[in-house]
Structure formats: C-alpha cells, structure tokens
Amino acid sequence: MFHVKLHRHDAMARDADEKLAAQRIRMPKRIVEKPIRQVAKRLLMALFVMALTVLIVWLDRGGYHDNANETVDFLDCVYYATVTLSTTGYGDIVPYSDSARLINILLITPLRVLFLIILVGTTLEVLTERTREEWRLNRWRKNLRDHTVVVGFGTKGRSALQTLLATGLPRDHVVIVDPSAKVIDTANAEGFTGVVGDATRSDVLLRAELQKARQIIIATQRDDTAVLVTLTARQLNRGAKIVAAVREEENAPLLRQSGADAVITSASAAGRLLGLSVLSPSAGTVMEDLIQQGSGLDLIERPVNKDEVGKSVRETPDLVVSVLRGHRLLPYDDPHASPLQLTDRLITIVRATAHGRPPVTLGPAE
Predict the structure, then answer these.
(1) Which of the residues 50, 166, 301, 313 could staple to 320 if both were Cys, CB 3.0 to 4.6 A apart?
(2) pLDDT tens profile 75-92
(3) Contacts of 242 (CB under 8 A, 6+ apart)
C-alpha cells in the first residue's frame, strides 16, 4: 500500500464548484464578437427595419383605410407596421390604393422577410455554431495522434509546456487537463485544447485522448494526486513517456513504481540550483540557461548521425555530455561510450542560434 507524504503547506483542494464542473472538452474558440454585442446589433437592425416600415406607411398613409375610423394617424402606422412585420395581419388597416398596394409588394414584403431573418438569425447561428463545434471536435479526435497531455496548468505545467513549444511543438498537439474551468479558459485563450475534470478519473483522461498520446506531463499541486494520475495514465497508455513532478523527494520512488519514466522533485531541484548559485553565481546562470530552451545554450537529445558512427564522443561537432545506449546512460568520459553506434542517442550542449529548434524527444527512441 502506498504511503504518500504530503507537503504541510500544500494548497487546499479547489472549490467544490470547480471540482463538480462539467467534464468536457473545450477547444480554442473562434469568436469575432461578444454575444451581447451580436444581440444588440440584431436588435438595432430590427428596430431600423420597423422604423423604416413606419416611415413608408406614414408617407403613403392616404392609401390606407382603417375600418375603425377610416383615417390613419401615426399610431395607426406604427400599429400596421408591427402587425405586418410580425405576419399577424388582423386586417383592420389595409392598403386600398394602387400605390399603397404596390409599395407593400415591393417594399413592405421584403422588409417583413428581413425582419423575420433578423429575429430567427440568432437561433440559427446558435445551431450552426453547435454543429460547427461538434464537427471540429470529431475531426480533432480523429486526427489527434502522438500528442502531449499536460495534467495541471499551473506554474510547473506552464513552464514545461513553454520549453516544449520552444523546440517546435505545435499548439494543436497539446491537450491540457485541469479541474478548474477558469484554468482551461486561460489555456483556450492561449490556443490549447483543454479538458475540465479530475485527471485521476480514467474517463477524463480518455476525453484528452491520452491512450493515443506520445508524452504525458504530470504537474499537479499535490503529490498524492500525481501518484493516482500516473497510475491511471500508465494503465491507459503503456507506451507513452510519463514525466511527473513531486514536491517531496520521499514521494519520488512512488511515482516511479506507479509508472513514471522520469520524476522531478521541484523543491529539491530549486534548492540545488540555489546552492550552486551561492557557490558560483556564474555556474548557476549557466544551469539556468541550459534549462531554458530557445536562447543561449541548450541541452538537447539527438540521434547519432551516420558520419559520426565509429567515432569518439570528442570527435562530434557538439559538446557531448552523455550517450544513451539502449537503457544505459553513459557519461562522456566512460570508456564504453566510444565508439559511437548508429542506435545511440546523444545528450549534447549546443547554441540555440546554431541549431534553431532542436527535436527534443520525450518519447521512446525510434
């Protein structure tokens, strides 16, 4: 039985309304105008059509007959325009002159159709938008393969994702899972697809198409949640690369036993970087630069080129730190690291401007 040590200063559980939020997929929205602005615009258009109809009837009021008092005043014109545009047509005010009937045919009838289109337009747009979103969602599910699932879009999850984006990962190949609807709205605003729900539940992870994902980043607020998410994720996807973050170092073995390929202890890593910066501020700056992709020096993983096969690690154009051979990670000074083999992968330090966007691979070596 797992025993997870919890950080004493862990944040409390999220609000109940966010935990009970609908477990659904939210794709980045494509809204040109706010809904209230669209409704206000349609209302103004409807009022304009009605005012124009009243004006037309008022200018030709002599051609209309009122069964009540045989005269048509301004109020009668407004009344006639209202019942006409709404297709009610009580028949108490009717056009009897040829000009009035011609105007009804050429102007009033088109205005009536336009008025109805404006009124029904909002409902039609809602139905169209729902159909469009359903079509986008089905196409997204069908085409999504080898994507990245990020569980938890806090500071850790966001920073990890920014590093991957700096290496060229497309935003449409990322799915965010978080129990907070507000967090998912933020992710949508940044162009990511999000799933609202508890990631410890398999149905939520299935909504994120985790079973087809290539790499999974688990950056939850609590260590016990990270363990449960890792267990569930590994059960759904046996081949994906799972990287998880924990606060307490004592919990790292539990994450590995649960199926995580790599575990990062956030508190210890930050502490070691602080200690290194105290001993040597320049060394701390170099380490910070290495873990920040896209500028200065970058630490990348790449395959061995054909012209490098059989050579020593010191004969490569890049500064080799380690050699990944199968499941063994060999330091650069290990006698077994050289000569290089075609199936090896190299952990190297390169300049960001020299290599552009390196293909950092979190998944298994191909």
Answers:
(1) 313
(2) 888 888 888 887 777 777
(3) 215, 216, 218, 230, 233, 234, 259, 260, 261, 262
